[in-house]
Amino acid sequence: MPQKTKIQPEFIPFENIGLCFSGGGYRATFFALGILSYLDHVSYKSKSLLQSVKALSTVSGGTLTGVAFAKAVQDPDYNFKDFFKNFYATFTPENDVLLKTAISKLENDSVWKANPYKNRSLINAFALTYQEIPIFEGSFQHFKEDKIKHLEQVCFNATDFSFGLTYRFQNKGYFGNNPLYKNNQKQINALRNEVMLGDVIASSSCFPVGFEPLVFPDDYFDNHNSPAYKNLKGLDNFIDGVGIMDGGIADNQGIGSMMLINERMERTKKGLDLIIVNDVGSYKMKPWQQDTTKIEKSSTVKRVINKILQYFTIKPLYWITFIVGLLILILNNMSVFGSQDYTGLYILGGAIFGIGLLLTAFGLVASVIKSSVTSRLKTLFKKNVPEPLLEDIVTFKKLDISLIQVMLSDRLTSAMTMINDVFLKQMRRINYDLFYSKSELNNKRITATVYKLNGKISPYSNSSGYNKDIKPMPSKSLESVCLTASETPTTLWWDKTDVAKNRMETLVACGQFTVCYELMDYILKLKADPENTITDFTEIDKLYAALQTDWKAFNKHPLWLVEALK
What we know:
Strand content: 5-15%
Helix content: 40-55%
Low-confidence stretches: 1-7
Mean pLDDT: 85
Shape: elongated
Oligomer: single chain
Number of strands: 10
């Protein structure tokens, strides 16, 4: 018998949308706000595309927007335009006090007395600051699985420093990561909804070098005497706490978490029919350059260290001073200097004696410390330095100061380049390879990048990748706005340059017109795909016409929608 051909169900797009917001400081925060605002603006089948967003996966700077939006939609009086105005007003340069407030808290002793459960650190100061901002107030209780409205699944990504895995603050599935959760579900679930949203944001945006890790559960719960906290803290994996840092370390686009969300949704009902990854991570990196400082024979390490170490010994001057003072006291007492002893000589002798005694004691203690440190250094060098170099290094004989400076500079700058550029870009490529290798996601994915329309050609290709079937071509003013947005530094504050270049508005606008373009590109490719199972494009064509109208408006005036909303 001939084998029956399996009939593919009709693909219906734009019903269940998942959004990924990448990390990248305020660059990510306001690009994400632009994405949300345009999806709210444009309609499909008589409702905004934003109403079809069922899942969020956010990282770092994108988590600020994600948490605030996910919380806002739970409000009975939710209105997106009100949310936009509120969020926007909170972070305008004249109103933004996030950094200033966090530093003030770090320096204020009373803050830490009032919050003794938290380690005194900059990231915890940020966490406490987030908790006081109205749009971030509250706990994970807002997203309880049986209560969440509009959205179905939210995941705010961090990274754990116990297994090096993505640490997921999410309302469905495991909370944290699988190794930590699978054997401790009861204890973790008893506390998951008590985690403050300020701590979630701080965890997700706790980027290396700039911040120190948070410690879970120690920094997250104010009542360390509660039975639930004690039960969790008593588990082997949590006794010493788990270090939590920025989600971008493991996945700066939140792609892995969104794919897990999609799998969960497919097991219970229909999965996502469109995943939009919104990414402000750059393909560019500043090439590493070695230190070109001229190496000159000025002073060796041995000479410099010997000069320093000579102060950590008992010098003849110390004990001579001590003896002179003692002699003055004794001889004055014996009336050697006259017919009687003199009070002035007692004072002088006592002062000299005291100085000599202190210097001698200092020299003695310093000598002991120096011997201990030198011994430890020799032991360390013996374990890590090749035998032929050991004698020269341990005795500091031949290493010139300028040479040491160059060596340290090269090591530091190359390490920073590896952490901040090479590693993150490699992780970015791996996650995109995973995302685009899944055939089941064909016609179900869009990637919107902050630099897509800035007019610059990527060093990895010979063209901008712009779809020439979309008219008009990006205008110079649109490209200029996009370039200004894409060059925003990765910070959680606005500097004078950001204010002068109006980067907040350009970032929001960039998110708006970029997702407008990407939706048009998606529809054109969907219609051109001979394997698509869509039988009626009427509503899709209406959507494309609306997108095209907006695209023309963006090319004339890129900030028109920002100005209408703010």
